[in-house]
Write a structure and sequence with these properties.
The complex is a heterodimer.
Chain A: H1 2-16, H2 29-48, H3 50-57, H4 63-88, H5 94-102, H6 119-140, H7 146-174, H8 178-197, H9 209-214, H10 222-238, E1 250-252, E2 257-259, H11 265-275, H12 279-292, H13 294-313
Helix pairs in contact in A: 2-4, 3-4, 4-7, 6-7, 6-8, 6-10, 7-8
Chain B: H1 3-25, H2 33-61, H3 67-72, H4 83-86, H5 92-113, H6 119-148, H7 151-164, H8 176-183, H9 194-208, H10 230-239, H11 241-245
Helix pairs in contact in B: 1-2, 1-8, 2-6, 5-6, 5-7, 5-9, 6-7, 6-9
The chains are: A mainly alpha, B mainly alpha.
């Protein structure tokens, strides 16, 4: 126990001095568990997030937009891969992460349980959902766990391209025909609140926040990040003549931030608990793809084993 | 307008357009994440090649035609992809078998096209052949892996090849358009690719322990001449959905 408390002290001192924690370093079990939960949740979000966008890949309306969307979805798969690798350094295999996902033990960002109903939703995902994700991820570049931090640096570079891709779609729609502009407004109406909820519960209600901040797994609180996202996004929408679906949204000269209406946490928790419009379908799709691919993975392993045996004999 | 060159560019472009669309349908359904990444990469390359050839075709047609007009606003009969590209994603074995058969074909075709006297075709092909060389090495690896993996994978990949084989004779069908362009050193007579294609597939099948099905002429109606499988209509209905619903809109 004495040794543990000494280790814990040294650990905290490293964190306080902004020294990154690496896989082989000693770390408190709770720190490890917290990271396993957060990084794998982040990885699952990237992977499940491929689905709502993939939903419009076969209906992308131009060759250029199809190419960009395809590249973007491929990036998400890449991000998932970096993150699973970062999470694996904590001693859990990818197969286990996927099992937790399929069993409903692990979560992913609830925003991906909302449906993409028009091409404008692809714009809204890039502009709002990726826009919100970036605010969080830029902050996470400074996270205390080395592999997670490095994955974030790489991911942030690509995410800013995603956000611009989404905004470009919205710009084109807002400057297009009357129907296109309506499509953009409709997408904003549906995606604005889910994007705000992406930052999670208010600080006072957030289960993991305090410890995560102390260990610098998270660098800023949910509410701070949420406010930064709102502040930077409003003028981007207003500039295009779009209206945000919140009548209380207005600049507060005292706080130098935008005020906004109370968030509908009932909706948030309802979707988190699995009752969102897409929860079942998203998970079913992923589970089916994984199960359908089992024979391919088995074949690859069997082939590798045979090759090893051959080279031994030779 | 140079009609033969226009048609030839549509054939080259449509093969990539439709095959990349099939790959797009498979997005997020791969057997593992690494495969999702790799197969999307192939789809992106094919889409890029399609875009280049359709842009060239649009330039040849003139009158303000764009590559998007050609990609999204033609009638089914006006698409000139081969049947093999239209086959749905039945399972991973069919996807890889379809890919491998097209990769071998593209490999020999584009090798020759890099020497085209038409500088645009030569330029597109010089970029494409690097991509296709990777595609072929990847799909050939998978054929061997599946052929030699487990009993199940062996059976699945052999079944896929047995079923898809009837679509391969179209690859080597030729017509006056191809012959004219081949004579001018611009295009390639498809029948001239058959020997190389046969040898390469045989080589990989032998490594994979697979039986080569026999080629039989299955049809007199071919995609490259505008006559398609039943699958294509559904694919186009989805792909063309937005441009046809909002004909005046720009995206």
């Amino acid at each position: 126990m004495m040794e543990d408390s000494k280790k814990l002290e040294e650990f905290q001192a490293k964190i306080d001095a902004d020294v990154k924690i690496e896989p082989k370093d000693w770390m408190p079990e709770k720190y490890r568990q917290n990271l396993i939960r957060q990084i794998s949740q982040h990885a699952h979000s990237e992977i499940i997030g491929m689905q709502p966008e993939g939903n419009w890949l076969t209906r992308a309306p131009s060759l250029r937009s199809k190419k960009i969307l395809m590249a973007k979805i491929q990036d998400e798969a890449g991000h998932g891969l970096y993150l699973y690798c970062a999470a694996e350094t904590l001693g859990v295999k990818r197969e286990q992460f996927l099992k937790w996902l399929h069993d409903g033990v692990a979560k992913y960002s609830s925003v991906f349980n909302y449906p993409t109903l028009s091409w404008a939703d692809i714009g809204a995902i890039g502009w709002l959902v990726d826009g919100a994700a970036i605010v969080n991820q830029v902050s996470l570049q400074g996270t205390s766990y080395g592999p997670y931090s490095r994955a974030m640096v790489k991911i942030c570079k690509e995410e800013s391209f995603h956000q611009r891709q989404g905004y470009e779609i919205i710009v084109n729609l807002a400057n297009g025909t009357k129907e296109q502009k309506q499509m953009a407004q409709d997408a904003l109406d549906r995606w604005w609140w889910p994007s705000i909820m992406m930052f999670g519960p208010h600080d006072a209600d957030s289960a993991h926040s305090n410890q995560s901040l102390k260990w610098k797994i998270k660098r800023e609180s949910n509410d701070e990040l949420r406010q930064r996202y709102i502040d930077k996004t409003i003028h981007q929408g207003e500039h295009l003549g779009l209206t945000f679906p919140d009548e209380n949204l207005k600049w507060n000269d005292k706080t130098k931030h935008y005020d906004y209406s109370p968030i509908d946490w009932d909706e948030f928790w309802n979707v988190v608990k699995g009752n969102g419009p897409g929860n079942k379908a998203r998970l079913a799709h992923h589970t089916k793809a994984h199960n359908d691919g089992a024979w391919v993975r088995e074949a690859a392993i069997a082939f590798q084993e045979k090759q090893k045996l051959k080279s031994k004999i030779a | 307008m140079n009609n033969n060159l226009f048609t030839y560019c549509l054939r080259l472009g449509d093969n990539g357009l439709i095959l990349s669309h099939r790959i797009a349908e498979y997005c997020s359904a791969g057997p593992q994440l690494e495969e999702d990444l790799a197969i999307t990469n192939v789809g992106l390359d094919l889409l890029g090649q399609a875009e280049s050839f359709l842009k060239y075709a649009a330039d040849i047609k003139g009158g303000g035609t764009t590559e998007d007009d050609l990609a999204f606003k033609r009638k089914e009969k006006e698409y000139l992809c081969v049947h093999l590209t239209e086959i749905p994603n039945i399972d991973y074995a069919y996807i890889m078998a379809r890919q491998f058969l097209m990769d071998v074909y593209n490999y020999y075709l584009f090798q020759k096209l890099t020497a085209s006297k038409d500088t645009v075709i030569a330029g597109i092909s010089a970029k494409a052949i690097k991509e296709i060389t990777y595609h072929l090495s990847r799909s050939a690896d998978w054929i061997v892996r599946l052929g030699q993996g487990t009993d199940e994978s062996h059976l699945r990949i052999q079944t896929a090849f047995n079923d898809l084989w009837m679509f391969t004779d179209e690859l080597f069908e030729t017509d006056e358009i191809e012959k004219d362009l081949a004579n001018k050193g611009i295009g390639v007579d498809s029948s001239s690719l058959k020997e190389d294609w046969k040898n390469k597939t045989k080589e990989i099948f032998s490594q994979a322990g697979l039986q080569t099905p026999t080629i039989e002429k299955h049809s007199l109606a071919y995609g490259k001449f505008g006559s398609h499988t039943e699958y294509l209509g559904f694919l186009l209905a989805e792909m063309q959905h937005i441009p046809l619903l909002y004909p005046d809109a720009k995206w």
